[in-house]
Fold:
Amino acid sequence: MIEAGYILGGLWVFALGATVGSFANVCIYRIPFQKSLIWPGSHCPRCYSAISARDNVPVLGWILLGGRCRSCSLPIPARYPLIEFLSGALFVAVYFAELVYGGLEPKDFSRAGYHFLLISFLIVATFIDYDYRIIPDAITVTGMIVGLGLGTLMPWARPSPLEATTAWEGFRIGITGLLVGGGIIWAIRIFGRILFRKEAMGFGDVTLMAMIGSFLGWQILPPAVFLAVLLGLIEPLVKSVRMLWILIVHGKFRPVDSEIPFGPYLSMASLLLTLGWPWVWKSFLANYYRQLGEAASFLWGAVGG
Ligand SMILES: [Zn+2]
Structure:
């Protein structure tokens, strides 16, 4: 049973997420050009008129304007309100998963806040990667500092089995995650280069995964990469089917753009696993790692003995 208070809380969290999404739009638009995030304020790219506070309200501002600039009626891309909406919706998902169905203790609030921050970094990284096929260090390195720093200051914020009691433990979990995350993608990069003789993944993906690891610890990373590959296959599959369709129906061959940004899929996979983490960990991952550990110690014993 969900009480009215929870719904009110959800609306508040949505507004918070949408506002963060509005700032994410500014970051996505300006960071690739190394422009200031604060100055100048948001303005129309054609008539340069400043966007008033009223029109700048996330999601609603765009709807009330009918998607056009108030002064010169230049269409404003729907992507802006959609990113604000996405951000709000993801915040609400964390709110339900970790507070409403999780708990309402201080550590649950720190965890939700911690994950709100991660979501914000992932949204900015995702859309810049999608647009430009780069993930700027300005986002990932800042994210690593935030992930490590807060994980050290609030060692209790990470979910079980990563709840730590001391700052040192929190720091160690973060740094291990950072190194494992960067290491996995680095290894994939090297294998990709040997196998396909071309750049399979950019260095931005290495720093992105290191950032994710600094927030979430190493345990989530192997299934996240696996899930990201599965999610990443959808786009080329759809494109290939469309190519075949065009070839069969119209007799035209249009080669598929084989370059796929991997960052969005890494982000998506990490978020999905974070949202379902208590279930993912208890129902299979803990067991799976224990068996791997047993197999490893058995082999170790066989080699050593
Ligand atoms: Zn205008």
Notes: The chain has ten helices and no strands.
